[in-house]
Amino acid sequence: MTLTNPTHDAAREQDLILQVQRGQSELFYELVRPYERRVYAAALAILRNEQDAEDTAQEAMLKAFANIRQFRAEARFSTWLIQITVNQALMRRRRERTVPMEGLDNRRDVSDNENEYAPRDFADWREIPSEALERKEVRQRLAEALATLDRKYREVFVLRDMEHLNIQETAEALGITVASVKTRLLRARLMLRDLLAAGWEQGWFSRLPFEKGNKPW
Amino acid sequence: MVENTFRCEQVWREVSNYIDGEVDAALRSSMDEHFRTCKRCASVLAGTRNVVQLYGDERMLDVPAGFSRRLEKRLENRLTHDSAVKGSRWSSWSAWLVPVAAMALIAGGLLLTNNLTHWHFVRSQHAEPAYKIPPDLVVVVSDGAKLFHVPGCPFIHDKASERTMTAKEAMQEGYVPCTRCLRQYLKTGMSGHSATEVAEGGRVEEEEREETLSVAGH
Ligand SMILES: [Zn+2]
Ligand SMILES: [Zn+2]
Fold first, then answer.
1. Distance (Å, whole) CA B126 – CA B131
2. Is the overall model pTM greater than 0.90, yes or no?
3. Counted domains in chain B
4. Do A122 and B40 touch (CB under 8 A)?
C-alpha cells in the first residue's frame, strides 16, 4: 500500500472526485476510504468518545458527499474532508455540551503564552523506534498519554501531527490563529515528550523490539 | 554546559518550529550550534522529534473493530437512496405535483389557507409511524423549517444551517418528512392519495408555498 506511486494516487483521486461530482455516487467510498482512519481520529480528538466519534465520522463523510460539488481542486481533498469532520465534531460538541464550559477556551487565544512549559526530563533521549508501534499495547500507551493533554493542546496536536494538516490549515479548522497553533503545538509536543520519558520509568516500552546495536541501555 | 549565544529556554521555545522548518536560517544555525554543545537541549530535540515521528505514523490511527464495515454500510444506504431520489427527482416530482395541486384546488382554499390546522393535523398523523421511513436513514434538517429531507433535496430551507441526523432522531425532534424527497416512504396502506399525502400537500414551507400556489393557479 505504501508502495503505490503517489502521483498515480493523486491522479486517481482527481478522477474519482470528478466522477462522483458527475453523479457516480457508488465511487464515493473508494474516494474517502484512504482517509477514514484520519476522519475518525479527528472526530475522536474533539469528542473523546468512540461512539460519538464514529457517528460523527460517518456524518462527516455524508456531508462531504452531499457537498462534493462544492469541492474545488485547489484544495487538498483530505484537508477538505478533515475540515468538514472537525466542523461536524465541534458542532456536535456544542450541541451536546457534554462538558460544562466547553467552547470557551478553544476560541480564546490569550493565555497561551502564560506559564510557558519547560521540559522536565533531560536524560539522554531513549529513542522509541517506529517498529514499536506494531504492538497494540504501545499504541494504547501513546493514545493514553495524548488523552491526558488539555483539549486545546490535544486538538492542535492531532490535526497537525497525526492528520498532517499544515499550520495554516490547522488554524483554519479550529478557528484559531497561526501563532496560537504554533504555541499549542510546541506545548503539546513537549508535554508528550515528558510523558513518554516517564513512560520509560513505568516500563511502557521495556520490551521493545530493538534492533541490534540500537539498545538504549 | 557551554556558554552559548542562546539560552536553553529560548531553544525550547523554538524547538517545535525548528522541527517544522519554521525558523529562519540565522536562528536555525544558532540552534544547530546550541544542540551540538548542550546535552539537555539535544535531549529535548531528540524526544520532540521522536514524539512527532511516532504519533505521525499511520499506525497510530486506530479505529474500532468493524468501523470500516459500518461506514461502508451507512454510505451505501445513503448513496443508493440518493441515486434513487436523484433519478426521479425532476421527472416524477413535477408529475406528482400536478395531482397534489389538483387536490388542493378540489379542497378549495382549505388546504392552502389554513396552514396551522393542517400543521397540527400532520403533526398528529406523524406521531404514529404511519410511513415506512427507515429509522436510520440519514436526513437533513435546517433552522426555521419543520421538514426533514434527504440530503441534497432542492427544498431544504436554509442550507447554511443544515444538520445531519437519522430519520428517527429527526422525528423525535418533531420534524416531519418532506413530501418531495421522501415521498416514496409516505404511502400508507390506503388507496390513492393517503390522508397524509393530501395534508402534506397543503402544508408547505415558505419557499414551497409560492411554487405550489403558482402551479395551482394554472
Ligand atoms: Zn540548552
Ligand atoms: Zn425534501
1. 8
2. no
3. 3
4. yes
